[in-house]
Design a protein that fits this description.
single chain; 108 residues; mainly alpha; 4 helices; globular; DUF423; DUF423 domain-containing protein; membrane; signal
Length: 108
């Protein structure tokens, strides 16, 4: 089984659901967090699939893990989790940046 592909596809699924809820079922800051998380998660789910196609699994995993950490912390706050969880969000962002740098290194 291709776990990176499966996880990337499920990540994309969650991103679309969160973005749709942010656009149609939430208001205020919660809607903004859902849309932002959904956008970043979806972009990086696709990036993970591209990385997989390029046989760059390391960067692909950084994309899905980083996108997940980034987005899920925003989703959790949108659903009422404590705001301090927002301090974890940049860890996901750092993983995403690391994934892009790793991919650039692999493609040099």
């Amino acid at each position: 089984m291709n776990w990176l592909g499966v996880v990337a596809a499920l990540s994309g699924t969650l991103a679309v659901a969160a973005g749709a809820f942010g656009a149609h079922g939430a208001e205020g800051k919660a809607a903004e967090w859902l849309r932002t998380g959904g956008q970043y998660q979806l972009i990086h789910a696709v990036a993970a699939l591209v990385a997989l196609r390029l046989e760059a699994r390391g960067p692909g995993w950084m994309f899905v893990v980083g996108g997940g950490v980034f987005a899920v912390t925003l989703y959790a706050m949108a659903l009422g989790a404590p705001r301090w969880l927002g301090a974890v969000t940049p860890i996901g962002g750092a993983l995403l940046i690391g994934g892009w740098l790793w991919l650039a290194w692999r493609l040099r």
